[in-house]
Amino acid sequence: MVVKHFYPDAKMDEAGGQRFLAPGYVTSTPIIAYEPGKESDARKGVKEFVSASYVMQNEYSHATQNYSFLDESEAADLATALQYMEETRDAWKSNKPADDVEVTFISKDGFTVTLLPRVGADGTTIAFASGAALVSFPADKIETFKGTLDAELQTLKSHEK
Predict the structure, then answer these.
(1) Which of 14, 28, 93, 154 pairs as cysteine with 23 (C-beta 3.0–4.6 A)?
(2) Angle at 12 between CA 123 and CA 86, to 5 degrees
(3) In the chain, what is the straight-line distance between the N-terminal and C-terminal CA atoms, in Å?
(4) What pLDDT score does 138 carry?
(5) What gap in Å lies between CA 146 and CA 152, rounded to an integer?
(6) Which residue positions in the chain have pLDDT lower than 70?
(7) CA atoms within 13 A on the CB side of 155
(8) How far is CA 156 from the centre of its chain?
(9) Where are the domains of the chain?
(10) What residues are paired with 20 via a beta bridge?
(11) Residue 152 confidence (pLDDT)
(12) CA–CA separation, 38 vs 33, rounded Å?
């Protein structure tokens, strides 16, 4: 038997759905799981769910979706990486890189967050991928995702052992 504490999802939608295009999204959920009586051995982390945008051709069309689990340490590393990406994005606004460069965080199970200086309102994009599912946002969304992740890390820290 396993006891799991689930918390509300924090969802970030991709901008711009169109008539036949369903926008992608990312949800992030803190999870705490343990066996009854073994609360001190709880596994804490964050589930990242990625749903890619897709063209709705018929009733059988569906999004490519996948989820990844980041343990508490990896989630903290992702928060640090997002801070670095935010600073890099701001530097690129005034001095766009001359070469083809990207900044990427990769978790143990392959969840990736990549900052790209190519597309978006300010010239940069942030892309989230899990398995074959990929969704991208203007890089101005970094603060939104980082704020959500910081709140989830606080939830994990506040849970009693």
Answers:
(1) 14
(2) 40
(3) 18
(4) 86
(5) 10
(6) 1-21, 55-60, 118-123, 160-161
(7) 21
(8) 17
(9) 3-158
(10) none
(11) 93
(12) 10
**What does the block give as tokens for 30?**
């803190």
CA angle 84, 88, 91 (to 5 degrees): 145
Which residue from 47, 61, 59 is spatially nearest to 130, judged by alpha carbons? Answer: 47
Does domain 3-158 correspond to CATH entry 3.40.50? no
Q: To the nearest whole number, what is the mean pLDDT of the chain?
A: 82
Give the CA angle between residues 135, 152, 4 to the nearest 5°.
100
Both structure tokens of 108: 């143990």
User: Which amino acid, residue 51?
Assistant: S
What confidence score (pLDDT) does residue 18 get?
54
CA–CA dist 116, 104 (Å, integer): 9
Strand partners, 13: 25
DSSP string computed for the chain: --EEEE---EEEEPS--BTTEEPPEEEEEEEEEE-TT-GGG-EEEEEEEEE--EE--STT----EEEEEEEHHHHHHHHHHHHHHHHHHHHHHHS--SS---EEEE-TT--EEEEESSSSTTS-EEEEEETTEEEEEEGGGHHHHHHHHHHHHHHHHHS--
